[in-house]
Amino acid sequence: MEAVFEGWTSTVGKPTMDSDVRMSTRNVDVHYGDKQAIYGVDLDIGKNEVLAMIGPSGCGKSTFLRTLNRMNDTIDICRITGDIILDGDNIYDKHMDVVNLRARVGMVFQKPNPFPKSIYDNVAYGPKIHGLVTRRAELDEVVETALRKASIWDEVKDRLDQPATGLSGGQQQRLCIARTIAVSPEVILMDEPCSALDPIATARIEELIAELSENYTIAIVTHSMQQAARVSHRTAYFHLGRLIEVGKTDKIFTAPEHKLTEDYITGRFG
Ligand SMILES: Nc1ncnc2c1ncn2[C@@H]1O[C@H](COP(=O)(O)OP(=O)(O)O)[C@@H](O)[C@H]1O
Ligand SMILES: [Mg+2]
């Protein structure tokens, strides 16, 4: 173990919650081959909570986020142990339907990744394959509702049949959020969702995150401490695969308990 972790025992602050828990991880380790990337993470994420995950590049934020909807399953050498519970279900249970899980725990990526299809079809795809609607009128309604919730409806309502790839980056990212919402997820994971966007598009996504948190649980990885401070209720600080500290966002940024957290937020490394 690295010298910096001599004497390190467990996460400081408040990683677990007494009530209103949406997702829980317990003793989660992740290995890539014989290299360990995540060490024994215990963390709860609350209903209607925005949880920000921050930490230096390579500390395991994306790896940990991807364990929450089994996105790491696609990486052959990746091995995950421990428990991850979503509303009472262990998501690594052998009976878990992974396609259904990824509808319940949707994901928005760093670079907007709309399908090379129309705006309408991007949003309609999920409800169709999951059999959530039977009639065209119902599908139209689901598409409109998702686009409205992602605050992009007014910009696209007159060109739903046009290719999604013709939208600006910020519009594409909101479309990807609409696509995620269209299948009624319980949790939305976002991995640096604004890092490819300009400041105005970023501000729109941040406003949207605040609106969405009324109905969804959101876990967002960000390299921007300002963004974490603006959008999240709780913040989790990772360092070299360990979850060092978790707490209310204003506390993490004003009165962190752990020296590593303090060093990071005051810009001593990153
Ligand atoms: N697909 C992969 N194969 C092997 N190692 C990986 C893979 N993805 C990430 N890692 C390693 O896991 C560690 C954590 O990476 P990552 O989760 O991407 O960190 P972050 O998102 O915080 O920058 C790093 O050491 C990285 O090199
Ligand atoms: Mg990452």
Automatic annotation (TrEMBL):
Residues 23-265 form the ABC transporter domain. The keyword Cytoplasm does not apply. It comes from Reinekea blandensis MED297. GO terms for cellular component: membrane. Keywords: ATP-binding, Nucleotide-binding, Phosphate transport, Transport. InterPro entries: AAA+_ATPase, ABC_transporter-like_ATP-bd, ABC_transporter-like_CS, P-loop_NTPase, PstB-like. This is High-affinity phosphate transport protein (ABC superfamily, atp_bind). It comes from the Bacteria. GO terms for biological process: phosphate ion transmembrane transport. The keyword Cytoplasm does not apply. It holds the Pfam family ABC_tran. NCBIfam families: 3a0107s01c2. One of its GO terms (molecular function) is phosphate transmembrane transporter activity.
